[in-house]
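Sequence in, structure out. Go.
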Amino acid sequence: MFAITFDAGKNVAFELSAEQVTQLIGHANVHQHVFMIGLKNILQDCHASITREDYESDEAWIAAKREKAMLKLGAMMNGELRGQSGERKAKVDSFTTFARRHILSLLTKERRKELAEHDDKGASVLDALFAKNEAALRPIVQAQMEAAQKYEEEKAKLAASLDLSL
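Output:
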């Protein structure tokens, strides 16, 4: 039996049981209302930062807000909950992600802060550092990736073998 803790804001929270959730979504009008309010709030939030002062006309402002909302809606329709609302950045492979994290762990706190101020959060610097030191870093990063994968596999096995219900 599961329960969902629902936070209604302003320190008002309560649990809904599986039966209560089923009862709520069983009413078509309630289901539609909750869906529409939720979608409206998500789309309003995504364009809330676009201010009128940044545009020459109301039409340009509204067009920019509409474009941002449509990008968010498109991302959601593709199954992305946190899709980019603007230009999409190219995703990097997991090896590059692990390499960047490893290099970051070797840098001083001050240097990490410096990199965070770059437009790309220092990704280009980290990639250059990896390229410069690839012979030494590649085996370590590969080992980290393998260890992480093994950990995730073991965790999944453990979770499958445990009774995690209350």
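Check: The chain has two domains: 3-77, 94-161. Strands lie at 3-7, 13-17.
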